[in-house]
Amino acid sequence: MHDKPKPRIRCWQLLLILVVAFVSAITCKAQASEQHYLAFFDNNALPLSEPEHLAPLYDAVGERRFVLLGESTHGTHEYYHWRAKISRELITQHGFSFIAVEGDWLSIYQLNDFVKLRDAAGENAAEDARTLLRNHAMRWPRWMWINEDFADFLDWLRAHNAELPMAQRVGVFGIDMQDPQSSMEYVLDWFQQNDTSNYPQVADAYRRILDFPEEFRGYAQHLAQGGERLNNQMAHPAELLHSQLGDNPAGADKATWVARENALAAKRAEAQFHGATQQGPESWNARASFMHEALLRLAKRHGTESRGIVWAHNTHVGDSAATSMRNRGEVNIGHLLRTSEGEDDVFILGFGTYQGSVIASASWGEEHQEMTVVPAHPESFEGLLHQSGIQQGLFLFDDTARQGELLTPRPHRAIGVIYSPPNEAYVPTILTRRYDGFIYFDETQALKPL
């Protein structure tokens, strides 16, 4: 008798077995990661309901020069409220010298004059922040800074500064460059008043962009159609102003220094719009680099012993190297600052929420509205935190938290000025490496715009 032939596994059957095994392995790894994170959250949540609960945070900050305070939306009351609490303590008890926010250089500088009790003429500015902000010509999205929580903080900072000599007063500055046209107009005005010999060439350089329909948007279309890049012309005013300032920015003339910062904002905006015509991260990175450089120039302006606080979105402050941004070649302030200053001189605190309400717009440039923040994706960090039952808490990440079991990326919610669920963004993130600490709220409320 002949033996019965053994059944042979066909190629498609082998492939199916391998796929099932692979999916099973991935599922098991994800489930293990979920359990590790849940255990970590359960064992490491610190209370957060009273100001004194922040004491471990200040101990963790220690002597670091820069503290970056994030937000997972641009319209949440709790983020502004607790960033203000933290900033007040850092200023009054830990000697922090200035605050830098994700706002345009020129428009925020007018708020700086307010909190330092001066205006452009050196006299007292508006008596209260709400009056100032309601009349402030700030571009869309206005609610990011023209809101009740920020007004309260500005009033507090102004009252704090009133007890101090001018040299010790704490300022608030913008480190963004999304309104280059206003910055260019400021620079032109400075040259017209202070350097008439160079004014014609500066005016000619700037007007080559300002004369395009829609200014920089028209310039981007010009580049996309193969037109000449005007980067050298945009750099020239900044170079002229830099030579005027010399090598001592801490003692340089204020008006000249402000003009130089506006010229640099316009210069970097050109790079951002040029990057928008390319395939890659150039446009995003031009903005990130300006924020980083502007922050370092502020620190230099305030002296070698100065310490700075940053208020910006998690996507800007949370180290991009610990996210999927790295795969696209994108950087941000958190990553650049850790690289240039060292991790021991930078503390990054992220913020997140599971559900609630938020101020945002349905599309770019539209009127803001209060929207419902839908419950976060169950596999996200916010979903796991909700599952853990934590209502509100502070987490601090030490070296142990940055090892082994907590290094599996998970989705991390990111809501910008536009919100249109269910099409919302999640950034794959290693939470314990992206931040040095994290504050979570299970449910949050919308900002109150003025």
Question: Layout of helices and strands, plus pairs?
Answer:
Layout lengths: L10 H34 L10 H7 L4 E4 L7 H18 L3 E7 H11 L13 H6 L13 H15 L8 E6 L3 H15 L4 H12 L5 H9 L6 H15 L8 H22 L6 H20 L6 E4 L2 H4 L15 H9 L4 E15 L8 E5 L7 H8 L3 E5 L16 E2 L10 E2 L4 H4 L2 E8 L6
Parallel strand pairs: 1-4, 1-5, 2-3, 2-4, 5-10
Antiparallel strand pairs: 5-6, 7-10, 8-9
Helix residue percentage: 40-55%
Name of the CATH architecture of the domain at 180-281 and 295-306: Up-down Bundle
Query: What is the top-level CATH class of the domain at 180-281 and 295-306?
Result: Mainly Alpha
Counting H and I runs of at least 4 residues, what is the number of helices?
A: 16
Low-confidence stretches: 18-29, 120-124
- What are the secondary-structure elements, in order, as H or E? HHEHEHHHEHHHHHHEHHEEHEEEHE
Question: What is the beta-strand fraction?
Answer: 5-15%
General shape: globular
Please compute the radius of gyration using only Cα atoms.
Answer: 25 Å
* Straight-line distance between termini: 94 Å
CATH T-level topology of the domain at 180-281 and 295-306: de novo design (two linked rop proteins)
- Overall mean pLDDT: 91
Major sheet attributes: 8 strands, mixed
Number of separate strands:
10
Derived structural class: alpha/beta
